Amino acid sequence: MEVVIAPAGDLARLAAASIEALLTEHPRSVLGLATGSSPLKVYDELARRHKDGLSFAHARAFMLDEYVGLPADHPERYRNVIEREIASRVDFAPGAVQGPDGNAEDLERACADYEAAIAATGGVDLQLLGIGTDGHIAFNEPGSSLASRTRIKTLTRQTREDNARFFGGAVGDVPRHCLTQGLATIMSAKHLVLLATGRAKAEAVHQLVEGPISAMWPATIMQMHPHATVLVDDAAASRLQLADYYRQTYAEKPDWQGL
Ligand code: F6R
After folding, report:
1. H-run or E-run covering 79
2. Residue ranges per structural domain of the chain
3. Is 52 annotated as catalytic?
4. pLDDT at 257 (0 to 100)
5. Which of 25, 43, 70, 174 could be 74's S-S partner, Cβ–Cβ 3.0 to 4.6 Å?
């Protein structure tokens, strides 16, 4: 696992540069898209690079998760968030961006179909991730099976409180259920790139990087991934025991290596 500690703008540029390098070498790559606030600067940077010629025309993308039961036109439905924040700002082909269907009649079937759709592409090449203050990735809340696949989950009170800011501050308006890629689904991606900023994420980041692997902090499963990159600002890095070592390692990293 590589840990890079830098200002938020630099982190977004690093993540976007990694995606640009991937798409330039392999235009048919499969991207994994996260919602929430963590990837927004990355999406701004990708939209800027698209204006400079970066094309998504042959790429495909899969979302991490979706609320269950939000009306199709709800602005916080993740399908609409992804459309607004990135898909509509670049040149993905129609239908190239997919997400789990949180309004399906048969939710179990929708989850199985989603797993099959990801597998049919050969899998995600680069997965963007954020992390919840309770250590969730996608919506794999504490207690999630480390071997989980796409399924329905119940959001914790903590996550619903954290996300109330997207619903005018009303916790009661945040859905209670979601469909989410499982931890094993996420672990199948070839490269994981997680972004975290702000002091509220410091404990979760400490556990992710330095804690014991445990379903209590689901993101810790990333320690088992052969290519995981954790991009954090100073505040999110403030509880890392080996912060100085991570800083030194990144400063001395050869230029050719990339993320
Ligand atoms: C969103 C997702 C979540 C968020 C996490 C952090 O698709 O999968 O795991 O990444 O809740 O959210 P923010 O970035 O808003 O702090």
Report:
1. helix 78-85
2. 2-253
3. no
4. 86
5. 70
Q: What atom of ligand 1 comes closest to residue 201's alpha carbon?
A: 16
CA distance 29 to 34: 16
The yes-or-no answer on residue 134 being catalytic is yes
Mean pLDDT of the region 67-77: 97
The answer to whether 61 and 32 are in contact (CB under 8 A) is yes
d(CA 50, CA 43) in angstroms, rounded, equals 10
The confidence score (pLDDT) of residue 258 equals 86
Q: What is the percent of the chain where pLDDT is above 90?
A: 98
Phi and psi at residue 181, in whole multiples of 5°?
-55, 145
85 is catalytic: no
Ligand 1 centroid to residue 141 C-alpha, Å: 11
| Strand duo 191-196 + 97-98: pairing | unpaired
* Ligand 1 midpoint to CA 34 (Å): 7
Residue with the nearest Cα to atom 15 of ligand 1?
Answer: 36
Instruction: Tell me how far the alpha carbon of residue 5 lies from the centroid of ligand 1, in angstroms.
Output: 19
Whether 234 is catalytic is no
Tell me the whole-structure pTM to 2 decimals: 0.98
Query: 197-252: per-residue pLDDT in tens?
Result: 999 999 999 999 999 999 999 999 999 999 999 999 999 999 999 999 999 999 99
Q: Residue 147: exposed, middle, or buried by beta-carbon count in 10 A (0-12, 13-18, 19+)?
A: exposed
Of the candidate CATH numbers 3.90.1300.10, 1.10.10.920, 3.40.50.1360, 3.20.20.70, the domain formed by 2-253 belongs to 3.40.50.1360
